[in-house]
Amino acid sequence: MAKKKKKPKKPMQVWKLYKAEGSKIKRNNKFCPKCGTGYFLAAHKDRETCGKCGYTDFKK
Prior knowledge:
The chain is an all-beta fold. The chain has strands at 18-21, 24-27, 31-32, 36-43, 47-50, 56-58. The protein has a domain at 30-60. It is built from no helices and 6 strands. A hairpin with a 3-residue loop joins β4 and β5. The radius of gyration is 16 Å and the shape is extended. The relative contact order is 0.16.
């Protein structure tokens, strides 16, 4: 059987997680309450999810 071709990984786009306002930096996404600071929640259409622990916060 032939091996499957692997897709090249995309680099993480860290600049999308922050926004510069004047001389201050603002974080766009929330931090995970279980993992603590440094671990962002991924923003989806109907939920926010942590990639490390799997914590999910559903939006209403």
